[in-house]
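Notes from the pairing session

We agreed to fold both candidates in a single pass and log them together. This is the raw record for the first candidate, unedited. Please don't reformat it; downstream parsing expects exactly this layout.

Candidate A
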Amino acid sequence: MIESLQLAGHDDVAVVRDALARMEPAGTEEEALDRIRVLEELKAACAAAQAWETAAFDHHRRRNEADRGVAESRRGKGVAAEVALARRESPARGSRHLGLAHALIGEMPRTMTALTAGRLSEEKAMVLCRETAWLSVHHRFQVDRLMGVRFAGTGVRRLASEARAHAQRLDQQAAVEQLERGQEERRVSVRPAPGNMAYLTALLPMPQAVAAYAHLHQAAATAVGTGAAEGRTHGQLMADLLSTRLTGQDEAADVPVELHLVMTDESLLGGGAVPAWIPGHGPLPAEAARRLVADTRAEVFLRRLFTAPESGQLVGMESRRREFTGLLRRMVVLRDDTCRTPFCDAAIKHVDHATPHRDGGSTSWHNASGLCARCNYAKENPGWQHHATPAQLEVTTPTGHTYTATTPPLVHTPSLVRAVPPPKHQAPRSAADPPVQPVPRSAADSPGPASGSRGAPPETRVEVSKASSGRIALIWPELSSSKLLDDPLKRRREVSSKAASSAAVARLAALLAA
């Protein structure tokens, strides 16, 4: 029985995990529901155990750094990033779980007890910690005591509201200061949503947010009342008004700012079915992408990109500069799509050297990684190592754990997606283990076929940039004149026109085929 197990290490925990994986489904409705409840309690107990282990890891790391003479202000740097990799989550979530562990163990004992017993979910524990994060330890302990009787039968939102009310009552001055700090954190963000939609989120002070919403609500209601809705619902009108008023355009579909859209030439010009890709945001059906390009009064640029046929990855280019700028930076951002660190999907903020420039790392396609700011700063901490090729990034943490992420293809065709393995995690290797063989260089690792090579020519992708001013242009002279490609396609072609209808796309097909 699991109750009789004495778990002494991670191998014992793995035995429990494997036993659960082999458990046969219940034979009755009653048994199935009972198992669901117990497994939910087990999830909570596991979350509590993770919190203890997270705090222990942080303690061991800080103690070891103190023994090595590391300054106190530098101790524990990178701990949250390592926790995130172990949990296979983003660095931001790793930081939240590290804070949760310290709060539960040191300041909220009743919440920790309920989590350990399975009476409180990890989500609710996280909410309680978030709503009391700005309190002193003494006041936080009081809120924990007051909320202890409310764990059972209370929903997440209600639990958060009651905890926030207790916190504001106990320390009114700190509550006001917290509200003022919240105003300093106002921001706008965007994230993908199902159905090729996206959430545009603005974090604003309450009065401003309510006023903006009321203004859109009233304008949409006026359009409905005057018959100007054109078949759109009230909610659709509010969304369209938000888009047009933010961008200054006449129609919501006419995107006047730069929008990168990567798709195969067949999907753009020949009716192909391979989805397009918006770097950093995700796929778009081929037909929807063609409509986006054709049915707009905005102006369009085309830039021809070349990918290796085996992997679908961009080919490389070299630079003698210390910083990644210009076309090289753009190619790295297109290649990596989001932060390259395993399990992190934040937007790329930095393009930097995997092997640092100070250690002889080159400013090159092979040594470049697109990273979010948090991951780029984390790799600068002692003991962290990044080893990169255009095909993959291997991250080694100070404990010797290794995590590998493979670069996805530029456009996700079925054959290429099957060839991309998920991120991998390896425990530290001992001296007795055989050395890991380097990954063979793929076609994406080299500038192009060697002289006399009979290898397959690079495949073609088209990046479509919609901009407020410009022209339809085949912009490839920068790459074709930079020793990037040794290929018959290496010749200059520039075409100027304007895409305002589907007829323009048809003309482009003839131009590209010339």
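Candidate B (folded immediately after A)
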Amino acid sequence: MLLLKLSAADLLTLDERHRMVPHLAARWKHFREKDVSDTEREAWAESLVALARAMVDADRGHVEMVVECSAAIDESVTPKNAPTIDVVLLGRHPETQGLSVQLVELKRWSTVTRVEAATAELVSVPGMSKPKKHPALQLGATFETFAGVSGPLHGLTFECGGFAYLHNATENSVKPLLGFDAPTGAYSHVYTGDRHNQLMSDLRKHFGEDSGYSYAEILLDKMNLRNTPLLDAMIMSRGEDTVFTLRGRQKEVAEHVRQRAAYVFDDQGEAGRRAVFVVTGGAGTGKSAIGLQLKAEFEAAGREVRYASGSRAFNGAMKHHVGYGNTQFKESFTYFSSYITPPAEPLDVLLCDEAHRLRDRSTNHRLPPEKQGIKPQVEELLDASRLTVFFLDEGQSVRPNEVGTVELIKDAAERRGTPVVSYDLRAQYRCGGSDAYVRWVRDLLNPSETVHKWVPDGLMHIEVVDSPEEMERIIYHEAHAGASARMVAGFCWPWNKPRGDARHLEADVRIGDWHRPWNADSEQYCENGSVPPSKIWSVHEAGLGQIGCVYTAQGLEWDWCGVIMGEDMVWRNDRWVFRRGKWKKDKETKVKRVATPGSLDDEVRRKTLDTAQFETCVRNAYHVLLTRASRATVLYSTDEETREHLRELAGDVHLHGLRPSRENLPPDLRIPHQKRPERGKTGKNRAGKTGSLNSQMPLF
């Protein structure tokens, strides 16, 4: 748990805009599940600002402040009751040039008195009914939780200390805290309002001048707020023992599936036992991580497992990037439409990801009409396996023929007499772990009477640009620095097929003089082999030069994502206006171009789709695109009024060091993204592997 990560200078700017305290209060409620008290609000407004001003006065405004931070990374200590430190200061030490950490307790006390003459460990504070511990004791205990065996700083080399800042007090008014018998040590320093100069001097001793690096990222990484990207984790594990760190509710879901599996697969039990799980959750809540971890565990136990998806982009990345050269691994990833004809013997386990993309009926363009699906697709999937797990987010359904809902799955299972167990995931692990960003996206696309402006939290970054050229410069800069990055857009331009022997791509996405192609609408390489097919556009190095859409982005993530909003969703006065577009074909070139601006997705813009359904599909598509980034989203709209609206909600990004450029990461955190494995280098063969499910693959 942490409420905010910003430099001292940025925190002051945020406070000047009257956005700091509302943001902290919203984050507090998210974690604590209750409203913050007025007293706490006043303390934030007064004490955090006082500390930030001292940092700036000491010419250390670049030092980062992590506010209300819990050291607990053990799920047994839930966010609702996790103890926190007021502020963790992180920067570069002026002598060692390494990480420097100061733990800070902020007190608004103006005076204290001893409780007992013999000790200074307890003091009385006017207005408080119970005695309070000397802040040094609290800071010492906090250090143990941060640097102890289970703490986020364990194993790191760093300089650390701590102090209490009583900005309302004078040295004379809090003498019991400063006496000869007061606690001593690196965490016993006490600064008062009249010791401002001493505080500034000591801050300069603890922190050097600005190096350009974000040292707070070291703490966030150790707190598991910067997760290993899904595809990187799969490649590092070579498709076998995945390295996802399942946490909290994710662990509960996985454990309950294992327990139910033991019942279903019990050789002593009745034949034909089946079970169905439905796991719901928004983008980035860990649905795929759970599914892929379970896949690996069940395979290690010798079970017949398949991983089905409704996303060609996700399957393509798994089969042709992670599983390159490993036929067995590739064949374990299938589509929902792969089960028109059920297996001769039911699979042991079928894991259905992106299940909101279930179709009413299965269709396969490679099969003749008599072999197309004749019953609901969900029934085909239930028939195919003894244990079926569905993962879905109904807010990501982007086509009218996508019918996957919790109700649909439950009804189908219950008609078979199969029990259904449901789970809902809420904790956010993508988008930098920023629930504030997820709420901002939701409020942006579904506005209420209250306008919610973005408040920088140091976990996720948003900026609105004035042109596609500016967006492209940012995305290319980050990609060349080593970040994963892509540009995507609403489906507002025609999508021409590759032409000629060279499979030339038309520059379909046209904004003024800026013209770029969509990702290739092809199963083959295009442009004389220099442009990847659509199934691996999201992960191929050469995919950066094309624009993706919701169908090639869904289920995947990048560090940086540039999102172009087209004319299908524009802001007018106080609401979103949704438009259906039209295209025309040039008589000479036979190339399709925009005739009427708006949605050009043939499945969505058709007249048979009513207005409410059309708006839902467009809105959900942008929700998918806006939640693909793990560090930063760059926004651009082709409509000027919409751009102004986005800029008003996103705010000004011209704050010190706010853009989380990869170049600002400490070198040790610039871990290269994994390249496609070499052929034949995807791990040992699983054939014939048996064993106990619970003894094979521990969750890290």
